[in-house]
Amino acid sequence: MAPILGCVADDFTGATDLANNLVRGGMRTVQLIGVPGPDTDVPDVDAIVVALKSRTNPAAEAVQMSVAALDWLKTAGCQRFLFKYCSTFDSTDEGNIGPVADALLDRLGADFTIACPAFPETGRTIFKGHLFVGDQLLSDTHMRHHPLTPMTDSNLVQVLGRQTERKVGLIQHQDIQRGVEAIRAKAADLRRDDYGYAILDSVDDDQLHTAGEALADLDLITGGSGIAIGLPEAYRKRGLLKASAGANEVPAIAGKAAVVAGSCSAATLGQIAEWEKAHPAFNIDPLMLADGADVVGEALAFARARVADGPVLIYASAPPETVKAIQERLGRAEAGEMVEGAVAQIAKALVDEDGVRRLVVAGGETSGAVVSALGVTGLHIGAQIDPGVPGTVTLGTAEPIALALKSGNFGAPDFFEKALRVMP
Ligand SMILES: Nc1ncnc2c1ncn2[C@@H]1O[C@H](COP(=O)(O)OP(=O)(O)O)[C@@H](O)[C@H]1O
Ligand SMILES: O=C(O)[C@@H](O)C(=O)COP(=O)(O)O
């Protein structure tokens, strides 16, 4: 049977977040890393998530990768598609959410979709088109200082409107409260009035379940992982998805453990502080890296002296004022790439040379760099560690590795310890 849903995710942690919600709904899901080649076997699953590292690429590149992923998913037999981006709508006025969604709509010959980054379980809600994180508007949170995609406007109608030529409308809270038919009617009205997109309000999981039922037959849905929570049940009602127990079963992996972090998000900084209370940690200084010091070698020496006795953390993460100063000296993209490269090199050496088989990575871009360096081609999705983050087991590596890819913003303060305790 062909998969029901084909997904294109704009970063690797985002992809596991989406896969986690599909698995929790009972859909057998595999995550593939990068655009699959023509010879890649189509896994026997209900959903495939193609994880790209396209969130912060130039828009034209992100479009090209996303369309290639869509084409592969179409060839694999998928008939419905989902474009997954960040629940904090990480993007700039140049893209990449608008340009990629436009290109996917064009490729599918579709003229309308929704945009809904809501993920209430992690505090992301949308009300009257405005995105909240917890009790604050997005633009009042630390996201306004994000190293790559600072978010300074919470009005998603405006934010997406600056990224696309198509008209952007809104399906409001009260329409969703009125139920499935009201949502469909509002979507039909907007479509008739030549709107290409509707931002979809959603303040809780019930609304996302209602929206999932209402919109499950769109060719393309766009949003965060929350928009997927209503889809498995909608597919079951349509007879597309059979009851599937054990969608999250993966093998257990033994071996040494490490954590690497390149995320500078508030949640990660809190998790590092919590970890440092009881475990060893090494801080990478990007300015020393830039000066040519052997920071990678020092980090590895630090880890090698300790990893046989217990897990170690290597991190580049720093608070906003430090990141700002570093970016002013090195350039935003240059600093990001350099740090990602160093963290990935360290993770690869720990796996290849030191027997690390249980690895936690913090940060979306950072995860992309690490997963690419390790040669991972896919991930089996296991049970959830914290909302938005499942344990996974790698495909394509010489030996399977238990991997948790943590979005910067996700996870409780004790996430690193918990992940190493509960992941397969
Ligand atoms: N100290 C630092 N100074 C500047 N940039 C940094 C520093 N530490 C990490 N970075 C970069 O910041 C970016 C964080 O993005 P990401 O890994 O996606 O984290 P998040 O999931 O929190 O957004 C990466 O490109 C990373 O290399
Ligand atoms: O939707 C989300 O918030 C996450 O799935 C996600 O995409 C996070 O991205 P990073 O913060 O860059 O890890």
UniProtKB/TrEMBL annotation:
- This entry's Enzyme Commission designation comes to 2.7.1.217
Q: Which UniProt keywords apply?
A: ATP-binding, Carbohydrate metabolism, Kinase, Nucleotide-binding, Transferase
Q: Please name the Pfam families in this protein's record.
A: NBD_C, SBD_N
InterPro entries (UniProt xref): 4-carb_acid_sugar_kinase_N, 4-carb_acid_sugar_kinase_N_sf, NBD_C, NBD_C_sf, OtnK
Domain Four-carbon acid sugar kinase nucleotide binding, by residue range, is 258-416
Q: Do the record's keywords include rRNA processing?
A: no
Q: Which catalysed reactions does the entry list for this protein?
A: 3-dehydro-L-erythronate + ATP = 3-dehydro-4-O-phospho-L-erythronate + ADP + H(+); 3-dehydro-D-erythronate + ATP = 3-dehydro-4-O-phospho-D-erythronate + ADP + H(+)
Highest taxon listed in the record's lineage: Bacteria
Any GO molecular function: kinase activity
Q: Which residues does the UniProt record annotate as the domain Four-carbon acid sugar kinase N-terminal? A: 5-230
Task: Give the similarity note.
Answer: Belongs to the four-carbon acid sugar kinase family.
Its annotated function is as follows: Catalyzes the ATP-dependent phosphorylation of 3-oxo-tetronate to 3-oxo-tetronate 4-phosphate.
Q: What is this protein called?
A: 3-oxo-tetronate kinase
Q: Which organism is it from?
A: Thalassobaculum litoreum DSM 18839
Q: What is the lineage of its organism?
A: Bacteria, Pseudomonadati, Pseudomonadota, Alphaproteobacteria, Rhodospirillales
